[in-house]
Amino acid sequence: MSGAEVSTLVHVIVAFFIAGTLFFQWRAIHPAVSAAADSDQIREAIRSRWAPMMHIGVVLLIGTGVYQLMVLGMPKAELQKSSEAAGLSYHMLFGIKFLLASLILFIGNAMVGKSAALASIREKAPMWLALACAMVIAVIVISRHLAQMPAGV
User: Fold this and answer.
1) What pTM did the predictor assign?
2) Are 72 and 4 a contacting pair, CB within 8 Å?
3) Alpha carbons 24 and 26: distance in angstroms, whole number
């Protein structure tokens, strides 16, 4: 396997892992914990176990994402620029994907954080988790479009 293939594999596995936990929190964990009598203790137990995984995932996603942009994305963008192909530009789609992914990771980190400044996000968790899940779907759609763009060499 090439470096780009390994990077893509790590990126996709970590992204699905984080996205899956956001979906699971939204539809299973949050409703069950909110109904429990000792919900604060359960929430803290989940948070303390999940926070390190979320932080490691963010580092891996950013690292592999930058690598993929340089190795896979830039040749596609250059080919698109040189051929003056019609359609949405690679850089524009990547920018949208990056902004959405950043917001998803922000929401995920807000859910595992302890900051009082982000307590309002945790208090309205169902809404924020639903928004994050919708953005995950948009990122997947954009990612598939970017992956199908022709490569330079």
Assistant:
1) 0.87
2) yes
3) 5
Name the domain count of the chain: 1
Render each residue's pLDDT in the chain as its tens digit; 153 residues: 888 899 999 999 999 999 999 999 999 988 888 888 888 888 888 889 999 999 999 999 999 999 999 988 888 888 777 776 556 788 899 999 999 999 999 999 999 999 999 999 998 999 999 999 999 999 999 999 998 888 755
Single out the residue of 61, 28, 62 nearest to residue 46, CA to CA.
Answer: 28
Position 153 in a domain: no
Using CA atoms, how far residue 10 sits from 13, 86, 148, in Å, is 5, 32, 19
Domain that holds residue 93: 3-148
Is the residue at 74 inside a domain?
yes
